[in-house]
User: Fold this.
Amino acid sequence: MRTQESPPDLEGISRRYQRLYTGAVADVLDELGLRNQALPHEIRPLSDDMKVAGFAFTLQGRASGDAAAATREDYVKALSKIDELPPFCVVVCEPGRDTDCAHWGELSSNAVRARGCQGVVVDGGVRDSGFIRRIRFPVFARYRTMVDAVGRWVPSCFQQPIQIGAVVVHPGDFVFGDMDGVLVVPRDLTNEVLERAEKVRRVEGQVRRELRAGTSAMETFEKYGKF
Assistant:
């Protein structure tokens, strides 16, 4: 008789990743042969202390050209999707190569935060940066601008694979970012990468302590294989 699998502990996984750093996770991905999981380095957090860790909820948009081109139905669809966000997700937005406006802002941040969203990663623009930093909501973006999306850009596709740089992001992949950038962990490897990265963190912590105590770089490298 086949037993039913327990649902994943989304909150626990997210919290454990929050205690890591992207360098440890990147090293594990390298070891697994996944050497191109980092989003473009231009995508940065609004504040260096921001971290994001959660399961990808993907969003793609298109330039609307003018206000009339973006119909009421487009915006109703976008708002309904915001209301349906699952907890412990990270909104990952690919704006269709649009560079004319902000694709995320403070009001959107408040809306998704209230639904348990862990943060937002935008391969484009963000505005209201001061307000977002004030509420301490993690937002990573390529650039900042005050220019509104209304009449210029509209969300058009949700929960489909998107590509940012060289990385294809699937719904449910794990997204982890800190001040060094953003990584995407394939969904099926989320737990394995987490456990191996926690081991890396423990080993590097010991290496750090020994180096501070005066142990030579060569000795620590021979002992732990890390430097």
Notes: The chain is about 35% helix and 25% strand. Residues 1-5 have pLDDT under 50 and may be disordered. The radius of gyration is 19 Å.
